[in-house]
From TrEMBL:
Organism: Peterkaempfera bronchialis
ABC transporter domain sequence ranges: 2-227
The protein's enzyme class: translocase
UniProt-listed Enzyme Commission number(s): 7.6.2.9
Keywords, in A-Z order: ATP-binding, Nucleotide-binding, Transport
Record's protein name: ABC-type quaternary amine transporter
Annotated GO MF terms: ABC-type quaternary ammonium compound transporting activity; ATP binding; ATP hydrolysis activity
Family: Belongs to the ABC transporter superfamily.
Length: 227
């Protein structure tokens, strides 16, 4: 479980991006952080893998303060997916997906077969393995991003507006795929979006943030009060 205890983030210029946020993110479920642009969603997400350090409060992972954990071990336990996939442009699809396994010392053959297995899991034709990212559609690039994040089988997936830049039909397909992956693999997923419909469709729990980085609601989608 990931637990935020009165977490605050004040940037050096004085902006309070996250204000006394307390949340319990259960294992093996999808928790969505939703709210308008600038309400602190990305900041909150990036504090979980310590890309950003809180200025107050603490975040516990399975009961241990993440500030006391080595950053590389922490990041290895968390896949990270962003809006424009962030793929390495000069690596093929298969090599992009195999990045972390290769860093972990897997041999080429094992990493490649893992990449092909994951392509299948995220609904990508294995014939795309040798393509480069620019030769893929936006939706396909996001699938590669998800496959890459899953490659070393981390228990946690952090997803920052992963489907926001693709058109609505492709987006729906990606959402369904994510729900299927979640059901099959049982990952703990923290998902950021500004789209309340997406939050309701995907979330087991939905944290509604409002401007100033304060938590307005935290509930299953069917128990959210309309604002
Ligand atoms: P969201 O993901 O909900 O759009 P962010 O977490 O990106 O929100 O930003 C929250 C607030 O913090 C915004 O007011 C944003 O302008 C501000 N902010 C983000 N990054 C920085 C930074 N590096 N320095 C100063 N302010 C920042
Ligand atoms: P989407 O609606 O998912 O964004 P696109 O219209 O961008 O899809 O792409 C449709 C198909 O064309 C995809 O299967 C994609 O792989 C292929 N494609 C797009 N760009 C290229 C390219 N530069 N080279 C080869 N195939 C491409």
């Amino acid at each position: 479980m990931i637990r935020f205890e009165s977490v605050t983030k004040r940037y050096p210029d004085g902006t309070v991006a996250v204000d006394e946020l307390s949340l319990e993110i259960p294992d093996r479920s999808i928790t969505v952080l939703v709210g308008p642009s600038g309400c602190g969603k990305t900041t909150s997400l990036r504090m979980i893998n310590r890309m950003i350090e809180p200025s107050g409060g603490r975040i516990l992972l399975d009961g241990t303060d993440i500030a006391d954990q080595p950053v590389h071990a922490l990041r290895r336990s968390m896949g990270y997916v962003i809006q424009h996939a962030g793929l390495f442009p000069h690596r093929t699809v298969a090599d992009n997906i195999a990045t972390v396994p290769r860093l972990l010392g897997w041999d080429r053959r094992r990493a490649r077969s893992r990449a092909l297995e994951l392509m299948e899991r995220v609904g990508l034709d294995p014939a795309l393995a040798k393509r480069y990212p620019y030769q893929l559609s936006g939706g396909q690039q996001q699938r590669v991003g998800v496959a890459r994040a899953l490659a070393a089988d981390p228990p946690v997936l952090l997803m920052d507006e992963p489907f926001s830049a693709v058109d609505p039909i492709v987006r729906k397909g990606l959402q369904e795929e994510l729900l299927r992956i979640q059901e099959e693999l049982g990952k703990t997923i923290v998902f950021v979006t500004h789209d309340i419909d997406e939050a309701i469709r995907l979330g087991d729990l939905v944290a509604v943030l409002r401007t100033g980085g304060r938590l307005a609601q935290f509930a299953p989608p069917d128990r959210l009060l309309s604002a």
